Amino acid sequence: MVSRRHFLGGAGVTAAAVSASAVSKVAMAALPEPVIQTRPDTMPPLEPPDGRPYRPVVTLNGWTLPWRMRDGVKEFHLVAEPVVREMAPGFKAHLWGYNGQSPGPTIEVVEGDRVRLFVTNRLGELTSIHWHGQRLPNGMDGVTGLNQPGIPPGKTFVYEFEARRPGTFMYHPHADEMVQMAMGMMGFWVTHPKAPHPLIDEVDRDFCFLLASYDIDPGSATPKIMTMLDFNLWAWNSRIFPGIDPLVVRHMDKVRIRVGNLTMTNHPIHLHGHEFLVTGTDGGPTPLATRRYEVTEDVAVGQMRQLEFLADEEGDWAFHCHKSHHTMNAMGHDVPTMIGVDHSGVARQITKLIPDYMVMGERGMKDMTEMEMPLPDNTAPMMAGQGPFGAVGMGGMFSVVKVRRDQKPGDYGDPGWYKHPPGTVAYEWTGALPEPARSDAGGGVSMPALARAPTGEVEVRVRKPGSGSGGHAGH
Ligand SMILES: [Cu+2]
Q1: Residue 17, pLDDT score
Q2: Adjacent-strand bridge partners of 107
Q3: Which terminus of the chain has a lower count of CB atoms within 10 Å, N or C?
Q4: How far apart, in whole angstroms, are the C-alpha atoms of residue 37 and residue 35?
Q5: Are 415 and 407 in contact (CB under 8 A)?
Q6: If you measure from the C-alpha of residue 309 to the centroid of ligand 1, how many angstroms do you get, rounded to a whole number?
Q7: CA 297–ligand 1 middle distance (angstroms)
Q8: How far apart are the CA of 266 and the centre of ligand 1, in A?
């Protein structure tokens, strides 16, 4: 075992030999040792020890794969294998990934670099790696059966090509499609420009992460790979809020955030407090004439987007997917809507039989964020982020961009919660209130309102849990 601590500052990275049964000693002599990551934390950027210099990216709750320079070629060793990924504190998932984690490590190279990637398969079935978005020889494109035979279990294949254009890419298998990506096999790839580029700005902080979704029943650990739409865990780099680290920046930093989508639906990624430009896609840097300011950018399936902004507003700014179901964790699903249903009478009856019975959800679901519900072991909290003012009613694809004046350049450490200047936080009004204006329009002339329901009893049918009418598919 050779420690690689010098690469990542003691970040829990170790080198592990491939088992002798998988690869012969002769073959091993030519292979770079695979570097394995054991922690799900955001690792410091990997400053390039050799080759052309560049400003490295920071992978949210992830890390960058060190390489070996041999005869001018950057050699990487990826190991496809089952992993245990902590998706949030107290919740571990049994996924497939690379080098100890899902997603796999970020690969960073420079435009014009010759890259050799050894891929060892420690899964029980064939795999391959497709280098999404790259210009490369057809036989290196990684589609099993079309461009190459699948990599059999226990074998190592070599991919080699030149990183021809700078930009934001990803890698994933093209083998047993539905299973391998649903199990978490994916990783990020960044190719930095070799010289100042008219469409690629230098930035102070450069973050990246992949969007992923899983369907893991409460109390279990393995994703249901047959799920097509109704996922219950919406993740950034296989982490769910409150398990996603904040993106910490210094006030007036120029910030780039690279996002890739390997889920089965689109994600409108929304930043509070700032406007950003979309400066790149997997097709490369966007032409200047196409750039416009946005606060939400939809990232469709199989796409990459680069968002850039000047962090000129101090504070703790929410950063999340704008699909509201994607900022929820597993327990928020498949429960009936009880809002507005007064079932206190029913509750009194039930309490005679079950003393601990709780009325839930009739004022909304927020109560459940503060309630310590008895959950099965290994279950993600439904929505359990705690902010300085109480529970943050969100989970899943949610994090915080923390902009601080006193953050040191290059320091990604969490500065804690923002301390608001006096008089700048929304507050309770205790004075006299004017009557609020209310619309009493019953509909315009083109669409007259329906006659109001006659006064009298309104019949309400309460939907019972477990009645099979989930009403939740397709989001
Ligand atoms: Cu989403």
Answers
A1: 40
A2: 189
A3: N
A4: 7
A5: yes
A6: 21
A7: 11
A8: 6
